[in-house]
Design goal:
This protein is of the alpha/beta class. The chain is built from 7 helices and 9 strands; from the N terminus they run αββββαββααβαβαβα. The structure holds the ligand O=P(O)(O)O[C@@H]1C[C@H](O)[C@@H](CO)O1 and guanine (GUN).
Length: 293
């Protein structure tokens, strides 16, 4: 099927990819997990795994960033049927926002109910430490505020309404369960909650920009997740967002710190196991609470 790039996430194109996957995956996933930079190992611990390279799935984009393998992995985590994106798409790679968010609509058509987005982010909150896990309470989209929204263009009601609400983008019940999980695992000393700010990248922020974002109320800054969350909420998925604070944003001209992707990947890998435990524990709770949530 030929289509213009901005039409990649049309209902028909997404359905072709979903139908292809449904014919090959053993179970319908209930939960989709997007693995952030350096966090892809989560997909390797799924039970009863079936993996598909993005290049083999109809219409799937390719990922080009180090730390993003480029596979969709189906399986079970703590008894819950899941699908993991081992590698996501970013706008700075040159992808349109419809390409960046295409997998989310495919997940919706596969019957996914809950989306967990993870990312690596720079900490703006002065109380945050490198290695902290931040549950996303809310976001600031510098894209959206500047006129770039993944829902721009004709609206297809089969996905959702023209004007979706975003004040409840990150579900309180999921956030509470995630916090409970952190407590039960003894992770509270490095667990936070906060506001994630999206900037386009690929360059990291200047010092003046970090100061501005902090003054705006952002606790962490990154280059992903928000378009995925907007499209997920548009089609009614419940969303949990998790940022791993891989570096502290540089706030002072006397600092010798310099943000770099190698450091981001190094810290992600160090915390990957804790994050796997946390998500696995949370999924166990979601299994127990299927009827109440
Ligand atoms: O995919 P995520 O948001 O985890 O990746 C972050 C943002 C950039 O892609 C990269 C910068 O180091 O890490
Ligand atoms: N924009 C941005 N993205 C990141 N991803 C990981 N660390 C950072 C950071 O400091 N800034």
């Amino acid at each position: 099927m030929a289509y213009a790039e901005e039409d990649r996430n049309s209902y028909e194109v997404c359905k072709e990819a979903a139908d292809w996957l449904r014919a090959r995956a053993a179970r319908r996933p209930r939960i989709a997990i997007v693995c952030g930079s350096g966090l892809g190992a989560l997909a390797d611990v799924l039970d009863s795994r079936t993996a598909f390279l993005y290049e083999d799935i109809p219409h799937f984009p390719r990922s080009s960033v180090s730390g993003h393998v480029g596979r969709l992995v189906f399986g079970e985590l703590n008894g819950q049927p899941c699908v993991c994106m081992q590698g996501r798409f970013h706008s700075y790679e040159g992808h349109s926002l419809s390409t960046v968010t295409f997998p989310i609509r495919v997940f919706f058509l596969l019957g996914v109910e809950i989306l967990i987005v993870t990312n690596a982010a720079g900490g703006l909150n002065p109380h945050f430490q490198v290695g902290d896990i931040m549950f996303i309470r809310d976001h600031i989209s510098l894209f959206g505020l500047g006129g770039q929204n993944p829902l721009r263009g004709p609206n297809d009601e089969r996905f959702g309404v023209r004007f979706p609400c975003m004040s409840d983008a990150y579900e309180q019940d999921l956030l509470s369960l995630a916090m409970e999980s952190a407590q039960e695992l003894g992770f509270l000393s490095f667990t936070r909650e906060g506001v994630y700010c999206l900037q386009a990248g690929p360059s990291y922020e200047t010092i003046a920009e970090c100061r501005l974002l902090q003054a705006l109320g952002a606790d962490a800054v990154g280059m992903s997740s928000v378009p995925e969350v907007i499209v997920a909420r548009h089609c009614g998925l419940r969303v949990l967002g998790i940022s791993l604070i891989t570096n502290k944003a540089v706030m002072s001209y006397s600092s010798q710190e310099k943000a770099n992707h190698e450091e981001v990947l190094r810290v992600s890998v160090l915390r990957a196991e804790a994050l796997q435990k946390l998500i696995s524990h949370l999924l166990g709770k979601l299994g127990e609470s299927t009827n109440s949530l």
